[in-house]
Every structure is written in structure tokens, then in C-alpha cells.
Prior knowledge:
Elements: H1 2-14, H2 19-44, H3 52-83, H4 85-96, E1 102-113, E2 119-129, H5 144-148, H6 157-169, H7 173-182, H8 189-207, E3 222-229, E4 232-237, E5 250-255, E6 258-265, E7 278-282, H9 286-299, E8 307-312, H10 316-319, H11 322-329, E9 336-340, H12 342-355, H13 361-376, H14 380-389, H15 396-408, H16 415-420, H17 428-442, H18 451-466, H19 469-476, H20 480-483
Parallel strand pairs: 3-8, 8-9
Antiparallel strand pairs: 1-2, 3-6, 4-5, 6-7
Helix pairs in contact: 1-2, 2-3, 6-8, 6-18, 8-18, 8-19, 9-11, 12-13, 12-15, 13-14, 17-18
Amino acid sequence: xxxxxxxxxxxxxxxxxxxxxxxxxxxxxxxxxxxxxxxxxxxxxxxxxxxxxxxxxxxxxxxxxxxxxxxxxxxxxxxxxxxxxxxxxxxxxxxxxxxxxxxxxxxxxxxxxxxxxxxxxxxxxxxxxxxxxxxxxxxxxxxxxxxxxxxxxxxxxxxxxxxxxxxxxxxxxxxxxxxxxxxxxxxxxxxxxxxxxxxxxxxxxxxxxxxxxxxxxxxxxxxxxxxxxxxxxxxxxxxxxxxxxxxxxxxxxxxxxxxxxxxxxxxxxxxxxxxxxxxxxxxxxxxxxxxxxxxxxxxxxxxxxxxxxxxxxxxxxxxxxxxxxxxxxxxxxxxxxxxxxxxxxxxxxxxxxxxxxxxxxxxxxxxxxxxxxxxxxxxxxxxxxxxxxxxxxxxxxxxxxxxxxxxxxxxxxxxxxxxxxxxxxxxxxxxxxxxxxxxxxxxxxxxxxxxxxxxxxxxxxxxxxxxxxxxxxxxxxxxxxxxxx
Length: 485
């Protein structure tokens, strides 16, 4: 049946007016037939295996041939798609809306790598910018047909998705290269890096467009929002002469990326599995992370939520901006709860007890447990009064700092009310997110990141950890951001 379809396709292509396409199609048919003959020979004469090594070799040989066959069939389908009238109309529409005028520069042959690791040739129309053609280079133009199909960097969307999946999941691009090589896809580190970073850049560009919408809704749900900072080391240029190897000097400065998470909890206060959380991060500071939050909340139509809880530690950069964010997204005061993480407050109580050096360890523990119980019951005023009573004598200055911290955050410590509503009182979700997204991938001994590289990797990793692969893929394969360039 497959051979009949190939022969039928070949006859139909022979009737077309483009000899280049006919020759391309004939080449595919010939190569497909060669692989089918090899598979037929393996079927006619089964190979006997007697140990695991021989079985592994047999399976690898079969997979190489089937991968080659699937790549050739994919190339055949892609070529027919590129030649069909509907896609030609879409190409003309894309070119007409391109930010810079483009000129049809005729068909050229382009090699595209498939998910199986094989490269297939495609005849594609190339559009170049007028007056910007450079000999031997096509960096200023557009392969409109490939862009419409989501083919960037000369690889199919499936291969691009596999590369960014491994780049986000594994500890380094070297590990991603090794895993791909075991699958028969041989790519060097430079290619992997470019593919991953460009994939993230396209996704970020589409994400920032106003018409980008999410499929999720928080209508009638209970939403929890949290943000916090992490730590990574950046490669920042350093003044002075280059090294003996001719490299630019740099300093490994510690910087604090800001991470956010948005998730939904059910009536019992447990995270809803049906809603994948929104996770993202940025190195551009507090204003940038709150701008990201505003974008996510607006697209989730946060005003339709039943209740919204902002929970974080007592950092001033968070506390001062939450009211502005609430106002910007149009939330009502009856919808919003703002809470200081319970365990950060308890940590301050523990420090207060440790400063009382005249107490025994048993007395410190007894005082901490008592104040923690009162705090959880919502008796914040009594806890502050207990701390105030200790602000005398030795270490009084340090004790007053913790007293002032509790007073400053008193309005954000309604733990009794939130417990009754069965809403979270701890920010463990954002603490875990910082660890999984940033620390386990970008923080480590001798790890120094360029700013753009770090931004790209944790965008990929954020969507990987959130389980939002489809959303990231849809944004990265879209051509809409290119029209805004």
C-alpha cells in the first residue's frame, strides 16, 4: 500500500510544471524505496540474537532505518505542503505584512533536520530584503514557508521541542548533547545553545504581545500568588587588558533573579492538579517581575477569581508593590488577602528567644511554642506585646528590630482568618520554585552566566517545571513576534 501511494504521488508530480520539484520528489521516492528494501530484507531473513549486545545492535539498526524512513516521508509531506496553493497564499500574506519590504529571490534548497536526527532537502522560496543581499549569506531575508510551518534554525518543531526539553530538564547542555547522541541526533554544543536560546527568545517575544491569550481561566477559583528572589553569578565585563589567551576579563558578581508563581487551591487549601501553575523569572529587578505578574493576571482574567491571596516574605520590594499591582489589575478589596509567610514570622520569634541569653534552652523553646500558637490563632497584638516586654537590657537594640518588623507587618499576619478560610499561610511553593527553577540548574560552583543565557534557560525551565509545554511550544513556533520586529 505504501509503495502504491509513493508511485501514485510520483506520477502526479511528474505532471507538474516545476521540474525542480519533480526531481526532488523523485529523489524522495528513490531513497524511500531503498530503505523499504532494506527493511524487507531484514523481514525476509530474521536475525538470530543470543545475548543482550546482539539484541541492542539489532534494535539500533532497526531504529536507524525506521528513523530514516520517517524522516524521508516527512520530507516528502513537507515538500508537498510547501508547494500547495493554500500555503503559497499564506506566504504571500506573511510577506506583505513583513516589517521590511521583501523580494522573491526564487527557490533554493534548504536542509532541515528532523526529530530522528536525519536531514532532508526541501525546495523553498527565499525572500530577501531589497538592497541588502550579501554574497553567500541570507541572514537578512526570510524562508516564509518554513516560518509558517514553525521550522526555525533548520530543524522541525519536534526536534526543537526535544532540544529545549533536555536543556531545561538536565543539568547542562553537555548532558543534553549526550542524550540526543544516544537517540541518533548529533548536534554540537554551539548549535544546541543557539537553538535553545532562540527558542526561548521567540517564546518571550510572543508572550509579551498584548494579543497573546491563555487557555486557562481562574473564574470562581481561589488563586495564590507569590514571589521571591534567588541567587546566581553573572559574567559581567571587567575593565583591563585581555588574558594571555586573548579572552576578555569578567567578574563573577552575585545577582538576585526574581521568581514568581501563580497557582490555584481547592476548598481544602490543597493545590488543584487541574490548573498547571504559572512560573516565570527575570533578572531585571522588582519592577520587571511585577510587570510580568500584571501580564499573567490580566490574561488569566484575575478579576473573575473568587479569592486572591498574595503571600511572600517581608521584603520591602514586595510589600510596597502589592497594593499597586492590586489596583492595576482591578481587584476589589473584598477579593484580596495579603499575608506575610507564617514561617518567616516564626523565624523572627526564634531569633528573639535566642537573644535572651539569660534563658535556658527549655525556656526559649517554651516561649517560642507559646508565641507561635498565639500567632497562628491570630493573636498578633499579644505576640507583639510579648516581644515588646523583652526589649530591655542586653541586646535591646537587636530585639527592637524584630519588634518593629512584626509591627510593620501586623496587617499582613491574619493567620487565624486565613486558616479558617483554608488558604495557605506559608510560602513554601515559591521557596520550592526558586530551588527547582534557579538553584538546581543555574547556581553552582564555577557557574557564571551571561545575562541573556540565564534569562533563556530559566524561561525554558519555568515552563518545564510548571508543566506548560504546549503553551511554550505554541509561543516559540508562532511567527507573530517576527511581524512586530
